[in-house]
Amino acid sequence: MEAAVLGQQTKHSSEMENITKRVLICDSDFMVANLIDQVFTKEFKAFCTIVEDGNEAVKEIEGNSYDLIITDLYLPYKSGYDIIQFLKESRKSSTPIIILTSTLTDDVITNACLLGADDFVRKPFNTLELFMRSRKLIMR
Question: 52 near 30, Cβ under 8 Å?
Answer without folding.
Answer: yes
